[in-house]
# Entry
Amino acid sequence: MTAPSPPSPAPYGAAAADVHAARKPMTLHRLRALRDAGEKIAMLTAYDAASARLLDDCGVDCLLVGDSLGMVMQGHASTLPVTLEHMAYHTACVARGNRSAWLIADLPFGSYQRGVEQAVDSSVALMQAGAQMVKLEGGGWTVPLVRALVERGIPVCAHLGLTPQSVHALGGYRIQGREAHAADTLRQQAAELGAAGAAMLVLELVPSALAADITAAFPGITIGIGAGARTHGQVLVLHDMLDITTGPKPRFVRNFMQGAASVAAAVSTYVQAVKTGAFPDESIHGYSA
# Structure
């Protein structure tokens, strides 16, 4: 496969309006085409209309309304206090600002743990708020939920590795899949989720070699965060890459505001770095103290 030529930085400011005259709305079909062409997919979190418009104007392929908003927007110590109502509100805000990026919304803790019926009802609420795909965490027990959602026409992004909603069970923000048995479990879970119809899979804080193995076998699109450079794309929390996060900061995050003239310039630099393979650095994992 021939690697794509490095793209020019995405325009921002007044020039962005002209770009959107030609930019087609992102779809799952187009995302798969990017994957098949070897072009990396750039994803960032967004929680409000203004940020969504800016990220979309800067060429971000996918917007994730993450339950990370509980930490970066609400000031909580984890994502656990975030409710479905919070997620629907922020999803609707992002949908109003977005024009062409693919929009994914997290199912928050407590909105799908009770089974298929609850997962469907919660997903419907987020789709009606403007999401084009829902994301849920974990493997094994989530497989029937994924299958039920896909059967009902709801695209699903799965999430393995460090799953923040299970942070207490995992013993904190630690790299997952280092031991052979843990790596085998993640491979099996990824295979089961792919077979159930998950179109996308976020791999968080797993060794790069393991992420590459899973990516090679997974039928859909893989997105890494602290999982090396060999996934189909990358995602970061917007506030992390702009260096405005309070509390522990992931070591794998790069401060894209450093040397940037504006937030838009920083976001455009991130998109270009993902597309060209300049980000991430495979040698960096984990969280700082």
Remarks:
- The radius of gyration is 17 Å.
- The longest helix spans residues 180-196.
- The chain has twelve helices and eight strands.
